[in-house]
Amino acid sequence: MSETLEKILHPQNREEFGAIAGGITAAVTLLWYIIRLLRRVSPEEMERRRRVALAATGRIIDGVIVDAPLYHQEELAEGAPALIAFRYRIAGVVYECSQDVTTLQTEIEDFRIDLPVSIKYDPRNPANSIVVAESWSGLRTGVDTLRQAGRAGTSTSL
User: Fold this and answer.
1) Residue 11's pLDDT band (boundaries 50, 70, 90)?
2) What is the domain partition of the chain in residue ranges?
3) How far apart are CA 135 and CA 89, in angstroms?
4) Gap between the Cα atoms of 50 and 66, Å rounded
5) pTM to 2 decimals?
6) Separation CA 146–CA 119 (nearest Å)
C-alpha cells in the first residue's frame, strides 16, 4: 500500500493525476450544463403551465374587460400579441392585468366585452390571474348570452 501511495505522490504522477482530475471535473461540468439546457422550459410552456395551474386551483371572482383587440378585423400587426386587459377588486384593492391570448384564439371566439367576466386568480398572489385557459373560460360569449336571455324571458313572462 505504501508503494502505491509513493507512486501517486511522486512529482511526475502528481501532474498526471491533476490533469486527469481537471479533465474529469471539466467533463462533469459540461455534462451538467448540457442537461440543464435540455431541461430548460420555454417561455410559452411556462405560460401554458401557469394557465393550467390557475384554471385548476385558482379562485373565481367577477371583473370587467378594460380593453381587447378586435379579433374579427385584421387590425393587429403581424406578430403582435393579442392582449385582453381586465380589472377586478379583491379586499378593496383594484387589480388591472392583461393576458396574452394569442395562442388561445379558438377559446376566445365571439366573446362580449360589454359583459362581466369571471377571473381566476392565485389567492397567495392576486395579481397572478387569467380570464381564459385551454380548459376554462371566464369570458361571456354572444351565443350563451342570447340563450340565457331567452331562458330568462320565457321563465318570467307567464
Assistant:
1) low
2) 2-39, 43-156
3) 24
4) 22
5) 0.64
6) 21
